[in-house]
Design a protein that fits this description.
2 domains; mainly alpha; Arc Repressor Mutant, subunit A; single chain; two-stranded antiparallel sheet
Length: 317
C-alpha cells in the first residue's frame, strides 16, 4: 500500500509542476491546501519512522485521513485544468474515502482493544494480514488505484494526439450537422480584399464559434491564427480575412474576447475567493497582466479589479 501511495504522490507532484508554474502554484489557494496536505503526510511519515513521534491513534488517524483527502483533491484539480469542470457541491462524494477511513478506524481501533493502531496505517507495508484489517488495506488499494487511473486518463487526454481532424471535414465536425467542406474557389479576391457569400460566411461563423466554444483552444498561451486555421481546416488567408471583415477585429482581439468572457465566468463562479486575479487570468489564456487588463477593459468597459470589486459589493449587499 505504501508504494502505491508514494507513486500517486510522485505523479501528483509531477503533474502540478508540469501544468503550472511555481508562481501559479503559490498563488492558488487550492494548490496551497494540497501542498499543506502533502507536507503533513510526509512529515508524519518521516517523524514516525525516525522515532520522534510516539505511536498514537490520533497520529495514524490524522495522517491517513489526509492521504484520503489529498488523493481525490489532486484529481479534482487536474480535472478542472484539463476538462474545465469546476469543483462544485456535487463533488461531495470524493470526501467519502476519508469519511469511510475515519469510521473504519474508530470501529477497528477504539472498539477493539486487541488491535494495534499501527496496523491501521495504510503507509505501513508491514501491517498485519489479520482478515478484517486485510479488507481495510484492500479498500486503501482500491481508492488509490481508482484515482491513479483517473489521473492517468487526464494526462492521456491532455497530451494525446487528436487525428480525427485529418479524416473528417471541419464543417461536419463542429457545425452539428453534415455539411460540405469549404472550397477555396468560393472565395473571390478583388483589389486585395476578400469577399465571401452570405451563405458561406454563415458556415464559417458556425465552424469557428463551435470549435472555440467546444474545445476552448484560446486557453493556450500564445495561441495563434495559424493554429486555429490548422485545427478548423480553414485556409489561413481566408480565416484571417473573415475575422477582420466579419467580426471587425484582428485575431488577437477576437481571441482575447473569448478569454475575457471565460475569465468573467470564473470570477462569477467565486474562484477569486481562493485564487488571485492574476492566476485566473493566466488560466484564461493571458500570458501577461498588461494584455489582460487592456483586453478586459476593451470588452467590458472597466478594469478587472473594478469588475471584481463590483462582484464583491453585490455579494456583500
Amino acid at each position: 500500500m505504501e508504494s502505491l501511495v508514494q507513486l500517486y504522490m510522485l505523479l501528483a507532484i509531477f503533474c502540478l509542476l508540469l501544468f503550472q508554474s511555481f508562481r501559479e502554484i503559490f498563488s492558488n489557494h487550492y494548490l496551497k491546501i494540497l501542498l499543506v496536505l502533502l507536507f503533513f503526510i510526509s512529515g508524519i511519515k518521516m517523524l514516525t519512522e525516525a522515532g520522534w513521534l510516539a505511536p498514537n491513534p490520533l497520529i495514524y488517524l490524522s495522517g491517513n485521513t489526509a492521504v484520503f483527502l489529498f488523493i481525490p483533491g489532486v484529481y479534482l484539480y487536474l480535472r478542472d485544468q484539463v476538462y474545465r469542470k469546476h469543483i462544485s457541491s456535487q463533488d461531495w462524494q470524493h470526501l467519502m474515502p476519508g469519511v469511510s477511513y475515519c469510521m473504519a478506524f474508530v470501529l477497528f481501533c477504539f472498539l477493539s482493544s486487541r488491535i494495534d493502531p499501527s496496523q491501521l496505517d495504510i503507509l505501513n507495508e508491514n501491517s498485519t494480514t489479520h482478515k478484517p484489517l486485510l479488507y481495510f488495506i484492500m479498500f486503501g488499494y482500491g481508492v488509490t488505484g481508482w484515482y491513479l487511473i483517473l489521473v492517468l486518463k487526464i494526462i492521456k487526454e491532455k497530451y494525446s494526439v487528436q487525428k480525427k481532424n485529418e479524416l473528417v471535414p471541419a464543417t461536419s465536425m463542429y457545425s452539428g450537422k453534415e455539411q460540405e467542406p469549404i472550397p477555396q474557389r468560393s472565395v473571390e479576391v478583388v483589389t486585395g480584399s476578400m469577399y465571401v457569400s452570405e451563405e458561406r460566411a454563415s458556415k464559417l461563423d458556425i465552424v469557428i464559434k463551435d470549435y472555440l466554444e467546444e474545445h476552448k483552444p484560446f486557453l493556450k498561451h500564445g495561441y495563434s491564427l495559424k493554429q486555429l486555421a490548422e485545427e478548423t481546416r480553414i485556409p489561413l488567408h481566408l480565416l484571417s480575412a473573415f475575422i477582420n471583415k466579419h467580426y471587425k477585429v484582428n485575431f488577437n482581439d477576437f481571441i482575447n474576447e473569448y478569454r475575457v468572457n471565460y475569465c468573467k465566468v470564473k470570477i462569477l463562479n467565486d474562484e477569486w475567493k481562493y485564487k488571485k486575479l492574476e492566476a485566473i487570468a493566466e488560466e484564461s489564456g493571458f500570458s501577461n497582466r498588461n494584455t489582460f487588463t487592456a483586453a478586459f477593459k476593451r470588452v467590458t468597459g472597466i478594469n478587472p479589479s473594478e469588475f471584481l470589486k463590483t462582484i464583491k459589493d453585490q455579494q456583500a449587499a
